[in-house]
Protein 1
Amino acid sequence: MANIIDGKAVSAAVKAEVAEETAKLKDEKGLKVGLAVVIVGNDPASRVYVNNKKKACEAVGFQSFEYALDENTTQEQLLDLVNVLNRDDRVNGILVQLPLPGHIDEKAVINAISPEKDVDAFHPVNVGKIMIGEYSFLPCTPAGVMRLIESTGVDITGKQCVVIGRSNIVGKPQAMLLLQKNGTVTICHSRTKNLKEICRTADILVVAIGKAKFVTGDMIKEGAVVIDVGMDRDENGKLCGDVDFESAEKVAGYITPVPGGVGPMTIAMLMKNTLTAAKQQAGI
Ligand code: GUN
């Protein structure tokens, strides 16, 4: 039976580190840390995420600035707001919640965020920096996954790492981060042939394909570290991951549950990025 990786505990530890350093910066340097979160429209899932980000800001001692814009906001209005936030010294990090309504070009909005305040690490400048290993911010989910792998004590160096999924937000940066830690990395996706065989070679398997219970126990190497980035619904409408936990935990050495695995890490890493942004902007 696998060891369960407790994302809630690791996330709490990251947030505690951030809170401690934030309090110290305030006491010693009078520095306040601020995150602006922009949401456009009424998507209920986005609303929940934004509320959670606001709560996390309060918990670590950040100022949070929320901008809830109407569904009909024009791209120009949104770009104007981003430009105002880029110039606002109280705002160290800017997060525009995705997805945006269809009439707004997400790329144009991401490109307008100052790379120094891009705490999602979605701007092409920050994406490029990840590629060459000279980054300030890591995208929150892959960074959270790295922290969870670290929590197992398993050394990535020389290990076979398989990432399933090739999105710009998770799969691609995840592969880069594993490579930087000296893993031997294979990226699989929906068109990959022999996916099962490739998965079975993985000492470290990160699954971000967005299909409920896609990876089953027979696709996992005995003792592997299995990280499930999925947030899906099973046939009964119950929240589950991309990994079939029941069969996988019998084979894996370490495994993340859904919920309570990768999910809580994303916001913790966002807090960490915002603190990093504040320090860099203050020249600390
Ligand atoms: N929507 C879902 N996840 C994310 C995220 O990590 N960042 C942003 N900006 N929007 C999201």
Note: Residues 7-29 form the longest helix (23 residues).
Protein 2
Amino acid sequence: MFENILGDRQIKTAPDDLAVWGKDWTNGFEVAPSVVVFPEDNAQVVDIVDYAIANELRLVPSGGRTGLSGGAVAGNGEVVVSFDRMNRILEFNAEDRLVTCQAGVVTQTLQEFASDQGLFYPVDFASAGSSQIGGNVATNAGGIKVIRYGLTRDWIAGLRVVDGRGELLNCNAGLVKNATGYDFRHLFIGSEGTLGLVCEVDVRLAPAPEPQLVMVLGVPRVADLLDVLKTFGARLTLSAFEFFSDLALEKVRAHRMLPMPLEDSQPFYALLEFDGSALEAGMGAFESCVEAGWVTDGVVSQSEAQAQALWQLREGISESIAPYTPYKNDLSVCIREVPDFLADVDKFVNESYPDFEVCWYGHIGDGNLHLNILRPEAMSVEDFMAKGHAMSPRIFELVKARQGSISAEHGVGLLKRDFLEYSKSAAEIELMQGLKALFDPHQIMNPGKLLP
Ligand code: S2G
Ligand code: ZN
């Protein structure tokens, strides 16, 4: 297959290769692609789609393979289309503060390129060293700076995408203003490869921020976190407002041999980042929070190295709990709902599954909570995943009751596909299926992901 349109080096069928490129960071799903192909330019992506249509082949796009909802898992003989060889930064225009990347450019490479131009790509998260901009577009990746800079969607000025008909669409081409009809960019962003294959991305860059300070605060109760957020938010511009539970801190400290950030452990911790020039305002806010009893203790970075060390406490959580093959929920509610929602879910899990360790962390400043239930050692991954799935409807009922989202930033993929109705009405799902039929009439684009 594909020999007549790709070079030998661009086609892999060895079992080891299929096992590597046929999955992402999600556990518990069958991995069984038929072949992995590595296009090098847009024309070859068009050829691959045309070939797939003619031969009734199904395509699974693959970027950095850091997905957490099975969006890049090929379990049924699909063709994996890897963008590893489409990893060039094609153009930079200082006037537009715009950089054009092939889909396979690693997020961190883009961040470093922006910094070399004295600019800043502000979407950041723990997997930025491996994820690719094409995959970030496919899931509308969020991460740790959303509170100040928004999500991937807010920084994409143009896309070249091959849809399921084999059409290479040039969406918006970097324009700031464009009022000529539907903006298809925003359909493809977050579509998880189900409408088309992202080939090139025009990314708008931000002016570089001033040096940042990082603060870690000990917080006794979840409700206090929102009071702390309000107190700091009223006095300065937050670049990040993250939280994690004491269990999360315990796992990261053990995994990375990190010191305690504060003298005593606390039930919860807030990690804040803000401009260095706002130190005085930050210290004022800190003192107000301590007086109010919302904060018990705190530390502020004295150097860039210490700021990075404090960030490790938050960014290291995902990797540190991976050995427990956690059942992941990536939930969002409006910020006002966070304390009661978190208490509801915590109560449900502790009552229903007292022997499970629950690890809470996330981007509480934008209402995004990561609920990771750790697998008890004695339980098999299969049984545990089944239990996790069995728990989901009850948790998603709590999400639905607060008009929240069952997937805040990781996407739906395979993991949450069967629960879409908790966040999308029947009318919306019908429209999504109509769009899928329009953009992918042969049903070859990442079939079975996002939509049943
Ligand atoms: C985070 C990373 C993936 C996870 O740490 O913010 O989005 O849920 C997560 O472990
Ligand atoms: Zn996250």
Note: The chain is about 35% helix and 20% strand.
Protein 3
Amino acid sequence: MTPRKIIIDTDPGQDDAVAILVALASPEEIDILGITCVAGNVPLDLTSRNARIVCELAGKRAVKIFAGCDRPLGRDLVTAEHVHGKTGLDGPDLPEPTMSLAEGHAVDFIIDTLRENAPGTVTLCPLGPLTNIATALQKAPDIADRIAKIVLMGGGYFEGGNITPTAEFNIYVDPQAADIVFKSGAPIVVMPLDVTHKALVTKARNDAFRAIGSPVGIAVAEMTDFFERFDKEKYGSDGAPLHDPCVTAYLINPDLFSGRHINVEIETQSELTMGMTVADWWGVTDRAPNATFMNDLDADGFFALLTERLARL
Ligand code: RIB
Ligand code: CA
């Protein structure tokens, strides 16, 4: 099986970290051409620091990591330290990174990589606000037809929002970018809150991460111990949703997930519903389907996959 070439676009964030670790542990299925960092959960200097910390934790210092956009296309940056802590990777006590960032801007890396690889061979995996992806599409419209697939975490319909009543954080931070991406014509798979809120890290599941016993397993358990307090208090759930690893798990075993190919448009005008993913789940409009919008997963299978892969590092 030829591994799928991907670029991970990310704003680590503990859940981004788990998504990156699982991808790094899966070279038979996933060939990470590079990691591009964007401002989101925390500012860019921290997301680009955290991505390096995660790769060093996994012993993968050869991964190319690029810094990208430090603010949304047309709005002030909104961050989420209240969820992820002031560093964005609170929980484990991990050393400062020693590896350097790759030369060049993340947006140019995305453009160059898509142009240098055959059309339809590179998958983009955004785990944060879509600023880098949209900027690349604006700067080089020709890349839209070269993207094999965009598999992103973002949005919500039945679950509503998590940063406002109607908007999920990644889309809310940069709704203009999301609008560009969802109108790009590239094939899109969406992992919205509707599915990620079913991927709850219960105590038993986090204990399984900790029982791996490796520095990676222990660090992931400590990340989750920190990260989950916000969602457990807010939703009264018995664990935090592991949002971003749904993207990586889909790349490895898409059969874990189910959803519908529907039209999804982004609210970019009303401040009341800014960043809402208007998902035509029931097909009540004549708007053309543009995204596969997931709403269910095999949660036990998902966590079994994550635990097995994390144990490989
Ligand atoms: O709303 C959840 C998403 O926002 C996740 O990607 C999390 O890391 C934050 O970026
Ligand atoms: Ca993220």
Note: The CA atoms of residues 157 and 279 lie 6 Å apart.
Protein 4
Amino acid sequence: MIRKCLFPAAGYGTRFLPATKSMPKEMLPIVNKPLIQYGVEEAVSAGLDQIGFVTGRGKRALEDHFDTNVELEHQIAGTDKEALLTDIRALIDRCTFAYTRQVEMKGLGHAILTGEPLMGGEAFAVVLADDLCVHTDESVLSQMVALYRTHQCSIVAVEEVPLDKTASYGIVSGEALDESLVRVSAMVEKPEPEVAPSNLAVIGRYILTPDIFDILKRIPPGRNNEVQITDALNEQAKQGAVLAYRFKGQRFDCGSIEGFVAATEHIFRRDYAPGANYPTKQDR
Ligand code: G1P
């Protein structure tokens, strides 16, 4: 049973400067909802309601977002604007939130290791909020949690990327078990296309077994001189303990301007355009 989800959220978001100069990149909105909230909603959809954040300097807005704002709520109480807070209130009621800070930026693996005190000795999920995933039936994380129930090992979500993009991702290779599952034999962080073992790229959804922390403590820094989660997973993969899952759904790389705009268009059409369920401008 997985109950915990970790959100590494210490990065600077330099690709979005100046917007991210004094605002966490995870607070950038897709239409009217910050990226981090989409991530937490996905965790909850998978039954994970113990939420941990690894933050850093300048990230206090994250804590404030997952808290009540008494003055604002008093101000809009009884008006039609109140409905706009329904979803975030539901998350605050349902989840517990714990925070720890990454003091030095030493890579995603190091950020995850910083979250160890929040995750305890259980298997847990990791969501990178700048990968926004949409789905028709079941969220990507709930698809993965269902797989974990059967396989009880680390699982990474993967999708095929164009070969010239391998240097932006962790890349996996291994043996196909069926059309959506690969038993990973090796993982490499951001290989150049010439040396990439495949074009199957890890996206920002992971389920990790807790032995990952001991591995993270002992592996040397890898690419960019940073501690890479990909390298730690590679150690587990050598024991046959990692699955790569070709998820159902669509992922937007909201860490890039193009992906961010594409996600905005998608969510606008889905939730906000005339005919969608969300309150339209006239209703607000
Ligand atoms: C990180 C990981 C990489 C993974 C990617 C998914 O890279 O290091 O292995 O493929 O997230 O979004 P980043 O995008 O933080 O550079």
Note: The pocket of 1-O-phosphono-alpha-D-glucopyranose is lined by residues 108, 128, 131, 169-170, 189, 201-204, 230, 255 (CB under 6 Å).
